[in-house]
Write a structure and sequence with these properties.
This protein is mainly α and 87 residues long.
Length: 87
């Protein structure tokens, strides 16, 4: 199997997207669009914030219990403590 080679050959050098003329234009367009989305739809965004807070509570409960083993974490910890005391 031949080795994989990267040769410059006849290919043009690769330039980063921001170094092209389209990069700054796209960044400017996205910034303007984000500004108008926030200013024109702020009433909708602020209206949904209480509901997002209520939705965050069960989601945090669900995902944070995963971090410490859930409600059954104490049973497994007690079993490992018993094995240490026997050794």
């Amino acid at each position: 199997m031949p080795a994989h080679e990267h040769s410059s050959g006849d290919k043009a050098p690769h330039r980063a997207f921001l170094a092209t003329a389209a990069g700054p234009v796209l960044i400017g367009f996205l910034a303007i669009a984000a500004f108008f989305l926030v200013t024109e739809h702020s009433a909708h965004l602020f209206g949904i914030l209480p509901w997002l807070l209520l939705a965050a509570c069960p989601l945090m409960h669900l995902f944070m219990h995963h971090g410490h083993g859930g409600h059954e974490g104490h049973r497994y910890r007690d079993a490992s403590d018993d094995r240490r005391s026997e050794a």
